Amino acid sequence: MWGGVEEVFMKWMVLLLFGGLGLGILVGGLIWVAKRYEISTNGVHAQGTVVENYKSISTNSEDSDRRSRSSGAYYPVVEFQTEEGKKIRFQGSTGSGTPEFEVGTPVKVVYKPQNPHEAQLVNFTQMWLGPVVITIAGFIFFSMGVGSFFIMGAGDASQKNSQRQFLSMRPDSVKINGTIREVKTKGRDKYVFVCTAVRPGGSMEEEFETDFFTFDPGSEFVGRSVTVCLDPLDRESYYIEFGPLLKEIVKKQAR
Predict the structure, then answer these.
(1) What is the b/e burial string over 83-118, where b = at least 16 CB atoms within 10 angstroms of the residue's CB?
(2) Are 207 and 196 in contact (CB under 8 A)?
(3) Judging by beta carbons within 10 Å of its beta carbon (0-12, 13-18, 19+), is residue 198 exposed, middle or buried?
(4) 170-211 pLDDT per residue, tens
(5) Cα–Cα distance between 135 and 2 in angstroms, integer?
(6) Closest to 103 in 3D by CA, of 52, 137, 57
(7) What is residue 200's three-state secondary structure?
(8) Distance of alpha carbon 232 from alpha carbon 239, whole angstroms
(9) What is the three-class DSSP state of 34?
């Protein structure tokens, strides 16, 4: 019992961790994309000049020899003039290992007229690379979480089906005679036989459903006998054994 609980817990943990994290990143990426789209559509375009390449330095320590290594990324610093003649200087949003622009390079910028300091360089790397990468990463993590959840769920269903089939071979299973009463549709291309039988010590007939058929097995088998294998440890667990009748059902479908 605890193994099943742990599997369900793990399945939901995968969904919450990967799916939840991915959804958060995806939403953040889409909001970032929307903001960039808004400034690119409604912003004011101007000509700017790269006046500096700012190097951001990060230090990584290495435990093996207690030394540290520094790495850095260069961010272009751009200066431009608004329509009102005000000079604005801002730093690009995307850094690179080597300067993307040389100092003095003329560049196109776009800025919000109500807040000129919210400006962006008009090229793919500076304008769209960050939002696109974050959005794709969020989508991948979200897909991994949801996909793993359903794959693990399918695995649980397959395992339960195998356990049910094993009932017919278990020496402690209780076998009773049952009768096919009807064919029931359980969804698109899913059919089951509904069988009735009386449990040992019982007086009322109970209904038991077979595993799914991917084809309509046909009502001509109504009234035929089957064996219902009951799990003595779990009242809800059972398996219906067709015996030679299964060959007739398959043979009918092959016609």
Answers:
(1) eeeeebebebbbbeeebbbeeeeebebbbeeeebee
(2) yes
(3) middle
(4) 888 899 999 999 999 988 888 999 999 999 999 999 999 998
(5) 38
(6) 52
(7) coil
(8) 12
(9) helix
